[in-house]
Fold:
Amino acid sequence: MPEADVFSRTYWDAAAEGRLLVRRCGACGRAHHYPREFCPHCWSEDVRWERASGRATLYTWSVVHRNDLPPFGERTPYVAAVVDLAEGPRLMTEIVECPAADLRVGMAVEVVFREAGEFRVPVFRVCATL
Structure:
């Protein structure tokens, strides 16, 4: 389960409201994810939260048939994936509501949120329309 601390609380509070956030650097202009207090591209500390569009493309995926860690074991099989957010960063996630056989590299996906204990976590589904 996620652990929220003083820094990541903003991210998890936004997710609870159905909003995906990334961090954007004021010095070089690039967005990044996972959230951190500095830019991983230029090391500037001039970074701020920004609402992401929720649009992405599927970069890669794998079907997980066995996972002994709670709560994943009760959900197998599931599709673990990496998506390229429209804002630029790559995000590790899960693809839902689509059989793995129908997935294709580069297909359009959109964020939805799933309950996970006291949190809502971003997962992605295939876009119904572009």
